[in-house]
Amino acid sequence: MADAPTIVYFGNDWAAENRTSSHHVARWLAARHRVIYVECPGLRAPKGTGRDLRKLVRKVRLALAGPRPQPEGLSVLTLLQIPLHRFAWVRRANRALLLVSLRRLLRRLRVRAPVTWFVVPHLASVAGRLGERLSVYYCIDDYASLPDVDAPSVRAMDEELTRRADLVFVASGTLLATKAALNPETHLAPHGVDFEHFVRAQDPGLQVPDDVAHLPRPIVGFFGLIERWIDLGLVAYLAEKRPQWTFLMIGRVAVPDAEVPRRRNLVFLGRRPYETLPAYGKAFAAAIIPYRLTSQVLHANPIKLREYLAMGKPIVSVSTPEIDGFAPHVRIAHDRDAFLSHLDAVVEAGLTSAQIEAQTALASTMTWDANLRRVLARVEARLAGRRESGREPGPP
Known about the structure:
Elements: E1 7-11, H1 21-30, E2 35-39, H2 50-65, E3 68-69, E4 75-78, H3 88-108, E5 115-118, E6 134-139, H4 151-164, E7 167-170, H5 173-182, E8 186-188, H6 195-198, H7 210-213, E9 219-223, H8 232-241, E10 246-250, E11 266-270, H9 277-282, E12 286-289, H10 295-298, H11 303-311, E13 315-318, H12 321-324, E14 331-333, H13 336-349, H14 353-364, H15 368-389
Parallel strand pairs: 1-2, 1-5, 2-4, 5-6, 6-7, 7-8, 9-10, 9-12, 10-11, 12-13, 13-14
Antiparallel strand pairs: 3-4
Helix pairs in contact: 11-14
């Protein structure tokens, strides 16, 4: 951008256990602009578990530490908020606390007229109040349908931010119509893929990690956060029907232990570093997307689908609006029996070299760089229009 502004980026936990689109987008922007990444508290209220309490203590400590430079070239700041969004008085208190904290921060860092970039909805009240040149809402989920959130308050914040933002980008076509009804400056921006990273799974020289090398083949694999939107009943059914196969689930298990199915051939490996995922994926005979068809899932645009494509793996998935668009490259199942039947077929036959080449070529066109260049071009055009019209922001 000419006279490039600082981007104040409101995202989720920078040290989150799974790398989300929020992290990919922020890293890409930081390679081109000064980015201050503001960590925002979660949408759900803490449950009082040991993990939640440890996370709360950590957040307070980080908030007191101030901005923290990162190797990616951005600075991370942790915000303090009361995570009880269902109460109006809490939302008002949070708004006052946020505005004071952020305005003080921007003055201290000598930031004037930034671009504010929101990837979470619960800072809606901040948009337009920091003297920004432009506010962007990069909406990647139907946030009100996430597990354990107060849906009415989250929906209200999401709609407020959609109306207040100068530009809105949505990750899926199903979100486009509802957001465009609230803000005509709403545009589709599908997720990308870290292509060069995941295509490494096709490298003959890449070693499969020791902790899965001994597992019985074939291995049917999944990686990602194992939350309530994962149909563990389906996974258990598949493992029961094919006891000679290994079903490998990689990622933090975020559901209660009592809900985790136990089968001899069903392995929950836990979280593994992002850098190692292609090596684990190399062991997959097939990759699966076993979602439960919640409202959140029906609006989702799964990054892992593109990652599986880049790895050159056969893919079997449930049917969702976004996944159905990849039908030439994905076996799509509408019930358990069809899912099992598709798995039988792909595990037995694998992919031809032509199919792997087609998947790889498709994934190579959907990189974060390609997708975000289009997003940034629209942001730049809007900024240029404001400069030409002489609409200069005032002080925050």
